[in-house]
Amino acid sequence: MLFNSFEFIIFFFIVFFIYYKSYNNLKFQNTLLLVSSYVFYGWWDWKFLSLIIISSVSDYIIGRAIDENNNQEKRKQLLILSLFINLGILGFFKYYNFFTESFTDFVSLFGFETNPFLLNIVLPVGISFYTFQTMSYTIDIYRNKMRANKNLLEFMTFVSFFPQLVAGPIERASHLLPQFSKKRKFDVNEFKEGAKQSFWGLFKKIVIADNCAFYANQIFENSDSYPGSVLAIGVILFAFQIYGDFSGYSDIAIGISRMMGIDLMQNFKSPYLAENIQDFWRRWHISLSTWFRDYVYIPLGGSQVDSSFRRSLNIIITFTVSGFWHGANWTFIIWGALHSLFYFIQTGYSKNMKSVKILPENFVKVFNILITFIAVSFAWIFFRAESFSHAINYISEILSNTLFVNPITYFKGMGSSIQPFIIIVSLIYLSVFEISNRNASYSFQVGHYKAPYRTLIYCSLLLLLIFFRATNGSIDFIYFQF
């Protein structure tokens, strides 16, 4: 069930009405959320519900066992069991074919031939998200950062809470889980703010992401047919497609949750206004970047180790593993590793620029934002490409003399004449809100505008949303495949 579908609108308002009708009965509210979440997830394939139930029940039992055990060795064994179950399920469905094919390719270099057994299965939607969410729960109990929850209903609702189940934010149990033990009453102000944030998320998905996708998909899928100038534009369009798509999902999820009295963490904060790669990852997919910081980077020693080589290695490992989390393909691993390379380059650049006082501060800031956006967009090529060779060929064409070919004639035959105009207008809207609300909880803040301007903004965005939802239909979110 997609957020941008009519089925979801009907589903949500039925759940919402019953949910607040039962505000005095906490157990019923949580039961409703759990059943609704399973219906929401089972809409794709009900068979994969068993995986969520296994993760939920196993971590509930193991979490309590860790919490109630004082023997450190036994606690460690229980934690390893939890990690084995969660990573085992994730590895089987997401990475089995990748490792099998990679091993086959490796041994073939030495003249050995194998006949590998590959799985012909569909990747369960959202498995990477809820797996990391339950893993952090048992790890935090093991670290004595929180106590185990003794209410199975509350815990299973925490794992499967439908707004953020499929593509995050990846919530920490210490933040989200306690909210299911408190009664939630209707709050008109929270409802309004949640509705506005959901509306903005739908706009970013339907108007910005889906229209950019129309061109980006054609360009990447037929890259051999276009000059470097068109391919370069395709990269920029994909950069805004994936941002509008993923941050749009997060805005909808956070907004829906606010309407239901549940607070989710902020997941995006104007990432394309970041001044360096480190700043970018403080603003992009915040729930994942902080997860890798707390459960991979810091346990490796973080920046506290004495050796500069070890610190650099910790950064490379964290970025590379983050890339591998996104998909079972070498392109994702390279994408993650590239970000570690950019991190080192920009760190060295920043140290040198501190001694340069000639240039105006605002000029340096804008220049840093531009360079960071170019670096991030370059890495997106590997993220979007079907294979390593596809990415290399794509980059080679951009760096050729065809970069200076007029791209307009190539776009004329792709789609309607109004689409490029709408994309430009939409990106202007996005830029205005992102710049003016760079550090806000979400970028669509219009309360400071006078009433006529607010009305004009709402109406224009709504008309664009309705028109392109009717034109393009319901298109899957990119991160569903992760």
From TrEMBL:
<keyword id="KW-1003">Cell membrane</keyword>
<feature type="transmembrane region" description="Helical">
    <location>
        <begin position="417"/>
        <end position="435"/>
    </location>
</feature>
<feature type="transmembrane region" description="Helical">
    <location>
        <begin position="5"/>
        <end position="23"/>
    </location>
</feature>
<keyword id="KW-0808">Transferase</keyword>
<keyword id="KW-1133">Transmembrane helix</keyword>
<protein>
    <submittedName>
        <fullName>Membrane-bound O-acyltransferase family protein</fullName>
    </submittedName>
</protein>
<dbReference type="Pfam" id="PF03062">
    <property type="entry name" value="MBOAT"/>
</dbReference>
<dbReference type="GO" id="GO:0042121">
    <property type="term" value="P:alginic acid biosynthetic process"/>
</dbReference>
<keyword id="KW-0472">Membrane</keyword>
<feature type="transmembrane region" description="Helical">
    <location>
        <begin position="43"/>
        <end position="66"/>
    </location>
</feature>
<dbReference type="InterPro" id="IPR004299">
    <property type="entry name" value="MBOAT_fam"/>
</dbReference>
<dbReference type="InterPro" id="IPR028362">
    <property type="entry name" value="AlgI"/>
</dbReference>
<feature type="transmembrane region" description="Helical">
    <location>
        <begin position="117"/>
        <end position="139"/>
    </location>
</feature>
<keyword id="KW-0012">Acyltransferase</keyword>
<feature type="transmembrane region" description="Helical">
    <location>
        <begin position="456"/>
        <end position="480"/>
    </location>
</feature>
<keyword id="KW-0812">Transmembrane</keyword>
<dbReference type="InterPro" id="IPR024194">
    <property type="entry name" value="Ac/AlaTfrase_AlgI/DltB"/>
</dbReference>
<dbReference type="InterPro" id="IPR051085">
    <property type="entry name" value="MB_O-acyltransferase"/>
</dbReference>
<feature type="transmembrane region" description="Helical">
    <location>
        <begin position="366"/>
        <end position="383"/>
    </location>
</feature>
<dbReference type="GO" id="GO:0016746">
    <property type="term" value="F:acyltransferase activity"/>
</dbReference>
<feature type="transmembrane region" description="Helical">
    <location>
        <begin position="324"/>
        <end position="345"/>
    </location>
</feature>
<comment type="similarity">
    <text>Belongs to the membrane-bound acyltransferase family.</text>
</comment>
<feature type="transmembrane region" description="Helical">
    <location>
        <begin position="78"/>
        <end position="97"/>
    </location>
</feature>
<dbReference type="GO" id="GO:0005886">
    <property type="term" value="C:plasma membrane"/>
</dbReference>
